[in-house]
Amino acid sequence: MTIEITGSGLTIEKVIHVARNRVQVELNKDALHRIVICRKMLEEKIEAHEIMYGVNTGIGEFSEVVLDDDQVKDFQKYLIYNHAAGIGEAMKEEYVRGAMLGRINVHAHGNSGIRPEITTTLVDMLNKGVTPFVCQKGSVGASGDLAPMSQIALLLMGEGKAFYKGELLEGKEAMDKAGIPIPGLEARDGLGTINGSNVLTAMSAIFLYDANNWLKQAEIAAAMSLEALKANMGPYTARLHEVRGFKGAIRSACAIGKMVANGDLKTGKIDHKVQDAYSMRSSPQVIGTAHDALAYARSQVEIELNGIGDNPIFFPEENIQLSGANFQGSPVSLPMDMAGIAITMVSVLSERRLNRLNNPALSVGLPPFLTKGAGMFSGMMLSQYTADMQIVEQRILSAPASIQSIPAAADQEDFVSMGMNTAIKNFQILDNAYGILGIELMAAAQALDFREYKFGDGVTKAKEVVRRHVAYLDIDRPLYKDHNIMKELVTSCEILKEVENEIGSLE
């Protein structure tokens, strides 16, 4: 399998293929031709001494400083040096690979003015497994992700560091071992490599892929808890949600309905209340809202993946160049703030169902804290504590970063998106979400062990997978091992895969 890069048609799934699964990429021939044409135009403008931002001028506050001919080439090197100013631990390789893929797709439009050697080198780095070492923190999400992208650009000069075949090497050594020539940087090449929100967008794409899988597992957990709590399944009838019209709610109701199909609760053999509490009754509306939020975020991220986030932008057909702010990360950071909030919201719902499973006043006959030896044993009492702690952390992290602008660069960059903060905290939110959902799944399996009726096919399969990894809690034991096993189980999507193999897709 090879993914062709054309400047369009780049999806979240393709980002996952390349960034995480290391699928090969190929630059489309027409795209390469567009890059060549644009470069020719740029070189003609340089020769004519036309003033162009970031080509023969300084940047930011120094945009009015005009560079002489001798400075034009070296300026790109010093630009990258100055901007490679991140801090902290190494960013995950899949984030860096995703950012490189996004940048190649920007170049493929033929509006960036860089030499074709720059783009083809980035392609070679992806295909041969050279991944630059990039510090996680340093971008403010405007003028592009300048700090992290500059650490990628260092490799184009044979500098910096990179991961290659599991080792962290000096940049030149990694490139040499992979057999990739060092192209160096000439006029425009440096800025044309770094001037876009490619890291933010790549991380957002990966987050949305993982978050969608998590939401499907939230529906699995909901179905298990609903079966254990003898819920009224009427609110999960698709028709009820169709008359309101929200696509996410319809999707969620159908997914949960599919999970409980062929079980005694669904077929009416088990008595239930006329109307349940909100945490049981409104799961389709809540989880569905999250689906809709992620769908909107996905639409914005995929626009950005296929757009031209750069400055300046060159238009060879008209022989003009325009400076603007297409690097601004706000179109991605705002919907991604909403996406993170959505995961927190659904996690809160999960914890409320966990509370009902544990609380004998609410659990429809289940033993207190899901233990048969209440008093001597405390069962899953403290599991709720662990879930609650993670919920609070999620709530703190859910404060939007997109409104946290701090002016920089002598107020030339006086509004920034803080999109990288959004991307980083979203993964922290999701990490907690894996743990919270794992605890609900464990509790739901425990609760189902106390019930003696037939469960839905999807619920039965999900419980089977849980029991493969975590034993029934007969007497108290240290639960931290179980919690971590369950968190990893949710992260791996093993339950989701086996459930969908059993009953079909939940989408």
Task: List its salient traits.
507 residues; mainly alpha; Fumarase C, Chain B, domain 1; Fumarase C, Chain A, domain 2; 2 domains; 3-stranded antiparallel β-sheet; two-stranded parallel ribbon; 19 helices; 9 strands; 56% helix; elongated
Describe the overall structure.
This protein has 507 residues and is mostly helical. It has two domains: 2-196, Fumarase/aspartase (N-terminal domain) (Fumarase C, Chain B, domain 1), CATH 1.10.275; 203-503, Fumarase/aspartase (Central domain) (Fumarase C, Chain A, domain 2, Up-down Bundle). Helices cover 56% and strands 6% of the residues. It has 19 helices and nine strands. The protein has helices at residues 12-19, 29-47, 69-83, 93-107, 116-128, 146-154, 171-178, 189-194, 198-228, 238-242, 247-260, 278-281, 283-305, 330-358, 381-397, 419-448, 457-469, 480-492, 494-503; strands at 2-5, 24-27, 87-90, 131-132, 135-137, 161-164, 167-170, 313-315, 320-322. The chain has a three-stranded antiparallel β-sheet with strand order 4-6-7. Strands 1-2 form a two-stranded parallel sheet. The protein has a two-stranded antiparallel ribbon with strand order 3-5. A hairpin with a 4-residue loop joins strand 8 (313-315) and strand 9 (320-322). Helix 14 (330-358) runs antiparallel to helix 15 (381-397). It starts with a strand and ends with a helix. The mean pLDDT is 94.
